[in-house]
Amino acid sequence: MRLLLSLFLALCLFVSPLWAADFTKGVTSLQDWTTLDDTGATPSYESSAVSVADDIETTIHIIAAHQDTNAAGDEAYIAVDISSNSSGDDDWHVFVEQQLTSGTANAGDCDAESASAQANVYVTSTTNFETPGDVYFLKDVNTLADSCVCINADYANDDYITCVDNLANTYDADDYIYDIVDMINIQIPASANRFRVRAYNTDADATYAIYIRYTKVTDIE
Residue 116 contacts by C-beta under 8 Å, 6 or more apart in sequence? Predict the structure, then answer.
């Protein structure tokens, strides 16, 4: 019994610094909302290479959303490549490939201003947008970069959708909300020196919007 107690105390002394550790974290936007169009415009995307050589942990956060009501097949996907080299173009390896959700998105037509710092998105009809927990893409038609993701918290029938979080921007009656959104999180292995993100859409009709950022743990104090 005394031996077991000694081992337990030694283990506590070993791991307790990690419980109180201060993880230095930082988040960076790699790509603000941008269009991944059909084959007639901009069907592909490639990010710049991001160094992770000296970082403890890196997680990529990718959002890909339908931004129209055209039927999408299985032609769109996201890929993350990693490299063991610190530079050059000859050592990239595909780490993850994920197909984006196909089908036809429903569109909610905004019919009044939805002000920033409040949670309600006003729409003509709430049909297809009445399930708590569902994730939507709220598209700013005039400025795509001002778009956002809305998670359904509640709704008032044919009046508004209540998002879990308050809106960061104001949306007007020209904007739309769509109900097919992929949210992808990918942790980069510690053995990698760099990563990059690619996206492809060879569907002849459907258009996506993509948003990419990453979080790094750079130090433990």
Answer: 166, 167, 168, 169, 170
